[in-house]
Amino acid sequence: MQTGKRFRAYPTPAQEKILLQWIGHQRFIYNAKVSEDRYYRAFAKKAVSLSGTPVPVDCEYARFIGPETPWLREVPSPILRNGAVRWKQAMGRFFAGLAKRPVFQRKDGRQSVWITSELFAFRTNGTTHASELVLGTKKFPVGVLKFTAHTPYSRPASIHLSVEAGKWYVSFSSDDGLPEPKEEDTIAWLRMFSEEELPRKTLGFDRGVAVPVMASSGRRIDFSSVQKIRMEKKERARKRWQRKLARQQKGSKNRKKTKQRLARSFEYAKNVRKDVIHKATHNLVSDPARSLFVVEDLKVGNMTKKPEPKRDDSGRHLRNGARAKAGLNRAILSSCWGLFVLFLSYKSKRNGKLVLKVSPQFSSQECARCGHVHPDNRPSQAEFVCQRCGLTDNADHNASRVIAGRGIRLLREGKVQKKPIRRCGIGKRKHLGREPSEVNASGEDDKTRRPTRLLAASAKEEHLAARPETPPTAQSA
Predict the structure, then answer these.
(1) 257 found inside a domain
(2) The pairing of beta strand 2-10 with beta strand 141-148
(3) Does 170 share its domain with 225?
(4) End position of a domain, from candidates 373, 393, 412
(5) Which band of pLDDT confidence, cut at 50, 70 and 90, is reported for residue 416?
(6) pTM of the model
(7) Is 316 within a domain?
(8) pLDDT at 475
(9) Is the CB of residue 310 less than 8 Å from the CB of residue 318?
């Protein structure tokens, strides 16, 4: 089963300078490929003779190294190649309908570099889990990068080094050797329980703004009072740093320091949300008495869209409630609706449990005991009073019980539909570069290097004829 790891790294100032250079060069190649793609598509639209000509999608990058960009030779070639491969992977996701067309990467925010096995090896230091990486080559040495491994891991084929708010991280995905439970087997196992046993193994969850998550067992998943106070304090500091940043001169050192402080103000709230949701989902999945989790199928992206502008007959803009909608969007996104379902889903899958999504329609107006649906059942935001049977309950708790009942009926009727997994890849090879290797304490590699072939000759010949004679100008990041 594939598992992801993310560890805190501690590069030296000299190593940090080199890694930032690697990040910038890889971003340049990625943005150059984006610019080239836009050029070809615009050129095909303007030239009648080239209409219908396919836009080349390849991993070539050598054409961007020239008299104007000699500094691209200051980094190892796999760094540049991986920038082109990342762009091709993004195009593959676009063609598969999984994402939008690739756009230019910015210098602001989280930055990362993809490093394949030609440029790194784990260093064995006599401990059970290695905590050092040897980066670079003989021509471009980086040295030993120290990182904190707080959990066991296996050797990966490639790694990502990222920096965010001045903090460095090493992340990768590897196979832990454990079999992955199949969803079909889990569904068949759950359907074996009787009508009296299945409700005791089921938990429904209602997501809201006042209370982020309410379980049908009565448990509330929310931030503590201390965390709320501190996040409000960070929010006030963030606005203060944003005002200061607007007054500073672009390119100055003080502006750079302010941007780093501003990034750190965002970091606390993000870490708190992840910590709360990680702990809550771990406790839920670890409970042996619960095996079925039911959530609403909410379209969070559609719910947080900006309202459309309104105009009168003369063309003047009218009030469209954009400011109120912005506040609601901020409250929804800070309640971790999507993060909760994401963490709960992959942890349940690892433990052989099931997460179902049901329709959210009228779940807040339906009675969990008699099934009566009416708007008058909600006299207030937090209160639920059934107009038929007289059930009185907390509105969120009643809704979570309704959601749990819908999930049980869906499972009993055999209407659980497994969505097809759409995948995209760059070829038959599972990874680029040589096999994962180790180095001993002296720094010598235990395996010989192997040449890497990026594209088959047929794939290159397929796109050469479709290119115009004039190459586009590569845009820097």
Answers:
(1) yes
(2) antiparallel
(3) no
(4) 412
(5) confident
(6) 0.80
(7) yes
(8) 42
(9) yes
